[in-house]
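S2.1 Query sequence (Ethylene-responsive transcription factor ERF020-like)
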Amino acid sequence: MSSTSDEGGSYTKKYKGIRRRKWGKWVSEIRVPGTQERLWLGSYSTPEAAAIAHDVAFYCLRGISSPEKLNFPLMLPASARTGLSPRSVQNAASDAGMAMDAQLSSENSTNKRENGKEEDLNLLQNEHCETSWDGCGKSNEGEDLNISVDDYL
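Output C-alpha coordinates follow.
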Protein backbone atom coordinates (compact mmCIF):
# COMPACT_ATOMS: atom_id res chain seq x y z
CA MET A 1 0.00 0.00 0.00
CA SER A 2 1.30 3.40 -0.80
CA SER A 3 0.61 6.61 1.01
CA THR A 4 1.15 10.27 0.28
CA SER A 5 3.04 11.01 3.49
CA ASP A 6 6.00 9.32 5.13
CA GLU A 7 4.10 8.92 8.38
CA GLY A 8 1.18 7.21 6.65
CA GLY A 9 3.51 4.94 4.72
CA SER A 10 5.37 3.76 7.81
CA TYR A 11 2.15 2.97 9.67
CA THR A 12 0.57 1.05 6.80
CA LYS A 13 3.67 -1.14 6.70
CA LYS A 14 3.70 -1.44 10.47
CA TYR A 15 0.04 -2.49 10.80
CA LYS A 16 -1.81 -4.92 8.54
CA GLY A 17 -5.20 -4.14 7.03
CA ILE A 18 -5.24 -0.36 7.43
CA ARG A 19 -4.70 2.69 5.28
CA ARG A 20 -4.72 6.44 5.73
CA ARG A 21 -7.12 8.76 3.96
CA LYS A 22 -5.85 12.02 2.45
CA TRP A 23 -7.51 14.00 5.24
CA GLY A 24 -5.77 12.01 7.97
CA LYS A 25 -8.32 9.45 9.15
CA TRP A 26 -7.31 5.79 9.37
CA VAL A 27 -9.60 3.17 7.84
CA SER A 28 -9.82 -0.59 7.87
CA GLU A 29 -11.63 -3.23 5.83
CA ILE A 30 -11.26 -6.96 5.31
CA ARG A 31 -12.36 -9.57 2.79
CA VAL A 32 -14.82 -12.27 3.81
CA PRO A 33 -13.10 -15.64 3.24
CA GLY A 34 -14.32 -17.50 0.14
CA THR A 35 -16.06 -14.44 -1.35
CA GLN A 36 -15.20 -11.17 -3.04
CA GLU A 37 -17.20 -9.29 -0.38
CA ARG A 38 -15.37 -6.71 1.70
CA LEU A 39 -16.44 -5.75 5.19
CA TRP A 40 -16.02 -2.08 6.04
CA LEU A 41 -14.63 -1.94 9.58
CA GLY A 42 -14.69 1.80 10.12
CA SER A 43 -12.79 5.06 10.13
CA TYR A 44 -10.63 5.96 13.13
CA SER A 45 -8.45 8.76 14.49
CA THR A 46 -5.45 6.55 15.17
CA PRO A 47 -3.72 3.75 13.24
CA GLU A 48 -3.78 1.56 16.35
CA ALA A 49 -7.59 1.71 16.52
CA ALA A 50 -7.91 0.74 12.85
CA ALA A 51 -5.43 -2.10 13.41
CA ILE A 52 -7.39 -3.42 16.42
CA ALA A 53 -10.59 -3.37 14.35
CA HIS A 54 -8.80 -5.38 11.66
CA ASP A 55 -7.49 -7.87 14.23
CA VAL A 56 -10.94 -8.49 15.71
CA ALA A 57 -12.48 -9.01 12.27
CA PHE A 58 -9.61 -11.26 11.19
CA TYR A 59 -9.99 -13.41 14.29
CA CYS A 60 -13.79 -13.61 14.00
CA LEU A 61 -13.57 -14.62 10.33
CA ARG A 62 -10.51 -16.89 10.35
CA GLY A 63 -9.77 -17.88 13.93
CA ILE A 64 -6.39 -17.76 15.63
CA SER A 65 -4.64 -20.28 13.38
CA SER A 66 -2.22 -17.54 12.22
CA PRO A 67 -1.41 -15.19 15.12
CA GLU A 68 1.48 -13.71 13.11
CA LYS A 69 -1.10 -12.13 10.82
CA LEU A 70 -2.54 -10.10 13.71
CA ASN A 71 -1.25 -6.65 14.63
CA PHE A 72 -1.86 -7.08 18.38
CA PRO A 73 -2.35 -10.81 19.08
CA LEU A 74 -2.45 -10.30 22.86
CA MET A 75 -5.07 -7.53 22.75
CA LEU A 76 -8.08 -9.37 21.36
CA PRO A 77 -11.17 -8.58 23.45
CA ALA A 78 -12.73 -11.42 25.39
CA SER A 79 -15.96 -10.93 23.47
CA ALA A 80 -14.30 -11.75 20.11
CA ARG A 81 -15.30 -15.18 18.86
CA THR A 82 -15.48 -17.10 15.62
CA GLY A 83 -18.58 -18.11 13.71
CA LEU A 84 -20.28 -14.71 13.67
CA SER A 85 -22.29 -13.31 10.78
CA PRO A 86 -20.53 -10.67 8.65
CA ARG A 87 -22.73 -7.95 10.20
CA SER A 88 -21.81 -9.12 13.72
CA VAL A 89 -18.14 -9.17 12.75
CA GLN A 90 -18.46 -5.55 11.56
CA ASN A 91 -20.08 -4.53 14.82
CA ALA A 92 -17.50 -6.30 16.99
CA ALA A 93 -14.58 -4.83 15.02
CA SER A 94 -16.08 -1.34 15.03
CA ASP A 95 -16.73 -1.48 18.78
CA ALA A 96 -13.14 -2.57 19.47
CA GLY A 97 -11.71 0.14 17.20
CA MET A 98 -13.84 2.88 18.73
CA ALA A 99 -12.91 1.73 22.24
CA MET A 100 -9.22 1.94 21.34
CA ASP A 101 -9.72 5.42 19.81
CA ALA A 102 -11.50 6.57 22.97
CA GLN A 103 -8.79 5.13 25.20
CA LEU A 104 -5.98 6.74 23.19
CA SER A 105 -7.69 10.13 22.97
CA SER A 106 -8.37 10.02 26.73
CA GLU A 107 -4.70 9.26 27.42
CA ASN A 108 -3.61 12.07 25.09
CA SER A 109 -5.91 14.63 26.72
CA THR A 110 -4.76 13.55 30.20
CA ASN A 111 -1.12 13.93 29.14
CA LYS A 112 -1.82 17.37 27.68
CA ARG A 113 -3.56 18.48 30.88
CA GLU A 114 -0.70 17.21 33.06
CA ASN A 115 1.91 18.81 30.81
CA GLY A 116 -0.04 22.06 30.89
CA LYS A 117 -0.08 22.06 34.71
CA GLU A 118 3.68 21.45 34.82
CA GLU A 119 4.23 24.30 32.37
CA ASP A 120 2.02 26.57 34.50
CA LEU A 121 4.05 25.64 37.59
CA ASN A 122 7.34 26.27 35.79
CA LEU A 123 6.04 29.62 34.57
CA LEU A 124 4.92 30.54 38.08
CA GLN A 125 8.30 29.55 39.54
CA ASN A 126 10.16 31.53 36.85
CA GLU A 127 8.01 34.61 37.54
CA HIS A 128 8.85 34.25 41.25
CA CYS A 129 12.56 34.08 40.43
CA GLU A 130 12.38 37.19 38.27
CA THR A 131 10.56 39.27 40.91
CA SER A 132 12.36 38.02 44.00
CA TRP A 133 15.29 40.21 45.11
CA ASP A 134 16.44 38.14 48.08
CA GLY A 135 17.25 34.93 46.20
CA CYS A 136 15.22 32.67 43.95
CA GLY A 137 13.36 30.04 45.96
CA LYS A 138 14.35 31.52 49.31
CA SER A 139 12.06 33.03 51.91
CA ASN A 140 13.03 36.03 54.04
CA GLU A 141 14.36 33.73 56.76
CA GLY A 142 16.69 31.99 54.29
CA GLU A 143 14.72 28.73 54.25
CA ASP A 144 13.95 26.91 51.01
CA LEU A 145 10.40 27.25 49.78
CA ASN A 146 8.51 23.99 49.40
CA ILE A 147 6.18 24.35 46.42
CA SER A 148 4.23 21.42 45.01
CA VAL A 149 1.91 21.11 42.05
CA ASP A 150 -0.94 20.31 44.48
CA ASP A 151 -0.71 23.88 45.86
CA TYR A 152 -1.90 25.21 42.52
CA LEU A 153 -4.67 22.71 41.76
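The chain has three helices and three strands. The longest helix spans residues 86-131.
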